[in-house]
């Protein structure tokens, strides 16, 4: 049977995950809220 406590002690996060996390947070991504704000702004200007 798997001893989860022992397995958790051996766990080390993958470097790829940490690098991916940093890359994602450093990007300026447009989300749905940004799209809606732009649509409302454009509609008010017309």
* Helix/strand/pairing category: mainly alpha
Number of distinct beta strands: 0
Helix share, percent: over 70%
Give the SSE order as H and E letters.
HHH
Walkthrough of the structure:
- The structure is a single chain.
- The chain has 46 residues and is an all-alpha fold.
- Helix content is 72%, strand content 0%.
- The chain has helices at residues 4-10, 15-26, 32-45.
- The longest helix has 14 residues, at 32-45.
- The radius of gyration is 21 Å and the shape is elongated.
Features:
single chain; 3 helices; 72% helix; mainly alpha; 0% strand
SSE topology sketch:
Blueprint: H1 4-10, H2 15-26, H3 32-45
Write a brief structural summary.
With 46 residues, this protein is an all-alpha fold. The longest helix is centred in the last third of the chain and has 14 residues, at 32-45. It has one domain.
């Amino acid at each position: 049977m798997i001893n989860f406590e022992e397995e958790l002690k051996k766990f080390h996060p993958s470097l790829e995950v940490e690098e991916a996390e940093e890359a994602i947070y450093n990007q300026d991504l447009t989300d749905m809220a940004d799209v809606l704000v732009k649509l409302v702004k454009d509609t008010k200007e017309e």
